[in-house]
Amino acid sequence: MKTLLVTGGAGFIGGNFVLDALASGGCRIVNLDALTYAGNLDTLTSVSGRAEHAFVEGDIGDAEGVRRVLAEHQPDAIINFAAESHVDRSIDGPAAFVQTNVVGTLSLLECALTYWRALPLERQDAFRFLHVSTDEVYGSLGPIGRFSEESPYAPNSPYSASKAASDHLVRAFHHTYGLPTLTTNCSNNYGPYQFPEKLIPLMIQKALAGEALPVYGDGRNVRDWLYVGDHVAAIRRVLEIGRVGEVYNVGGDAERENIQVVKAICTLLDERRPLADGRRRESLITHVRDRPGHDRRYAIDASKIKHDLGWRQTESFESGIARTVDWYLDNQAWVGRVLDGSYRMERLGA
Ligand code: NAD
């Protein structure tokens, strides 16, 4: 049975990864998470107490703590999800992004390198450091074209700049020291357990409550949306059969303007929970001042991971958004505890 050190496994994508890996079996998870505002142990309730899941509250930038975890649990791989991840927060306060995404990742890489070098040879060969990153590092596209793994980096927000720096450090640790790294650059994710500050869960909650739906600028910014379960499957595939030192782009072939995404949510909620006063939810859409430096369009060419590793997304945007709306409707208790802050009050046992 393999042991995976997952960082940021109480967050949105890391949490989905942990739940999926434990449901599939065959691995132990050591889940290292600093429990920032984005870390939510409620997401992990169904696996708390499982012998295959050890939760450790800690910071990837705390080298001593990370060394202790590595020595105690002897992982076969590290999957680094831990990050500050919200673009708007990075505009208000970039320093935390540099601290975790750049300084923290560097510290984690240094600990991983020391640990990897001390492993017996056969375990060294099998070891992997998988860094989970974003398509935002490539900057903004015009109306045509898609990002490939060869696209030049041109990050435009403090968030994407910090992720770009972390990607470069991961690359350098492979080329300079031989650490067996892999990097994935994925498009926008959506699905269960996403913190309700991000576009899709935010709009679901506001639309459900019959509140105004604030859309940045003209709403015509395009993102390529991928259901989180498909991203998790891609990460597992890269971990299992990806080529060391390589980068894999992951995307959903599902480009949508933000306004289309919001209208899709409105339609689904009107069908499932009509507003008592009979209003259509699209009437709640209000355009607000655009995000500074807002990238116009992202689109991912995922042919490398499809061709080389045989990964395919299973959800279309239409099926994925319907599943997501239904999940939020069925899990209002989870959302409620985020919104009233009570999710931060409790801690799981080890
Ligand atoms: P998230 O904000 O939901 O979760 C981040 C998790 O990391 C939280 O549990 C938080 O407590 C933890 N964390 C933060 N700082 C930490 C630190 N210093 N040490 C240990 N843990 C720390 O983020 P997410 O949306 O799940 O994204 C996960 C990763 O995937 C990030 O690296 C992000 O850049 C990348 N990514 C996200 C998307 C997306 O659409 N959400 C798309 C592509 C890539």
Please, how many helices? 12
Q: Which small molecules are bound?
A: nicotinamide-adenine-dinucleotide
Rg (CA only) = 20 Å
- By DSSP, the count of extended strands is 12
Low-confidence stretches: none
How are helices and strands ordered from N to C?
Answer: EHEEHEHHHEHEEHEEHEEHEHHH
SS-based structural class? alpha/beta
| Average pLDDT, all residues | 96
Main beta-sheet strand count, sense and barrel state: 7 strands, parallel
Report how far apart the termini are: 20 Å
Q: What is the CATH topology of the domain at 2-194 and 227-252 and 294-316?
A: Rossmann fold
- Helix share of residues? 40-55%
| Percent of residues in β-strands | 15-25%
Q: Give me the side-by-side strand order of the main sheet.
A: 3-2-1-4-5-6-10
Query: Any idea what the CATH architecture of the domain at 2-194 and 227-252 and 294-316 is?
Result: 3-Layer(aba) Sandwich
CATH class term of the domain at 2-194 and 227-252 and 294-316: Alpha Beta
Annotated CATH homologous superfamily of the domain at 2-194 and 227-252 and 294-316 = NAD(P)-binding Rossmann-like Domain
The dominant shape is globular
Outline the structure in words.
This protein has helices at 12-24, 63-73, 87-92, 94-117, 121-126, 158-177, 199-208, 228-241, 258-272, 303-309, 317-330, 332-339, and strands at residues 2-7, 27-33, 53-57, 77-80, 128-134, 181-186, 188-190, 213-216, 222-227, 247-250, 255-257, 285-288. The strands form three sheets. It has a seven-stranded parallel sheet, with helices on both faces. The mean pLDDT is 96. By secondary structure, the chain is of the alpha/beta class. The protein has a domain at 2-194 and 227-252 and 294-316: 3-Layer(aba) Sandwich (Rossmann fold). The two termini are 20 Å apart. Belongs to the NAD(P)-dependent epimerase/dehydratase family. dTDP-glucose dehydratase subfamily. This is dTDP-glucose 4,6-dehydratase. Its cofactor is NAD(+).
